[in-house]
Design a protein that fits this description.
Elements: H1 2-5, E1 23-28, E2 33-38, H2 48-63, E3 67-72, H3 77-86, E4 93-98, H4 105-116, E5 121-126, H5 135-143, H6 163-178, E6 188-196, E7 200-209, H7 212-219, H8 224-241, E8 244-253, H9 261-266
Parallel strand pairs: 3-4, 4-5, 7-8
Antiparallel strand pairs: 1-2, 6-7
Helix pairs in contact: 6-8
Length: 269
């Protein structure tokens, strides 16, 4: 979605389950408007948080007019096919084969033939996110299957989510980048204060963890880890909003927050 939007709306990490929300990106041109929903990956829910994530996937599928299914061409196609088949899509799907820059022409042809024969697939697009995605190529493929209608959003909108949401996601992204092992999966971010001034935006946010030991790890020796997270997040936020930022982070322990409906709602899930 980031490549199609030309904006970083969805945080990026090589770790699984990075995306937790349904994020809408709005592309408006003279002749069309496309609303793209980036969703969490499909998992077997183990916590209420996971169930909320799968609810976001279900919501996106119910609203969609066309599905863009991403496949890592280097991984098991049959496994991806089983997941796509289980979705029981009621709309046409375009299958995008990613990482084609890393494999031989023969494998690309095999993958194209494999997915091209699937009943849910209307078109197969070989792409490479690393070397560059042809926005026009993907947009044109989607437009073939999108119905005509009036635009849903104002032409200036790029998402239906507010700035606070994207700020919290940028902070969470840095936790994924800098924290070790399972720590990111036990954390949430809540922006408590967002005050815009003429030359500076003040942001206060809480990083939620489940245990005191996780808090200690995120603070780091003499506060080194929380400083690294804050500095890296502040730079991204400044780039996103186009203004200097004063960012203050606090770490709070909330045991079993991933199973608590009230806390999940407070944290935006």
């Amino acid at each position: 979605m980031n490549a199609l939007m030309g904006e970083k709306l969805a945080i990026v990490s090589p770790r699984v389950q990075t995306t937790r929300h349904r994020i809408k990106g709005i592309i408006t041109e003279k002749d069309y408007q496309i609303v793209i929903s980036d969703t969490p990956g499909i998992i077997e829910p183990k916590y209420k948080l996971h169930q909320k994530m799968m609810d976001a996937v279900k919501s996106a599928l119910e609203d969609a007019d066309v599905a863009l299914l991403m496949v890592d061409i280097m991984e098991d196609w049959k496994e991806a096919d089983e997941i796509f088949t289980a979705l029981k899509l009621r709309v046409p799907a375009v299958v995008a084969l990613n990482k084609v820059d890393r494999c031989a022409k023969e494998r690309i042809e095999e993958a194209t033939a494999f997915f091209g024969q699937r009943p849910y697939c209307k078109k197969v697009l070989p792409i490479s996110a690393l070397t560059g995605i042809s926005k026009k190529k993907i947009i044109n493929a989607l437009l073939e299957y999108l119905p005509e209608g009036a635009p849903f959003f104002d032409g200036e909108d790029i998402s239906d989510l507010n700035t606070r949401f994207f700020v919290s996601e940028m902070i969470r992204e840095k936790i994924y980048e800098l924290a070790q092992e399972e720590i990111p999966y036990h954390t949430a971010v809540l922006v408590r204060e967002y005050k815009e001034k003429e030359t500076l935006t003040k942001i206060v946010a809480d990083i939620i963890v489940q245990r005191e030991t996780q808090k200690v790890i995120l603070i780091g020796e003499q506060g080194s880890m929380i400083k690294r997270i804050g500095t890296a997040a502040r730079k991204d936020i400044e780039h996103f909003i186009g203004q200097k930022v004063f960012l203050e982070l606090f770490i709070k322990v909330k045991p079993k927050w991933r199973e608590n409906d009230l806390q999940l709602k407070e944290y935006g899930y």
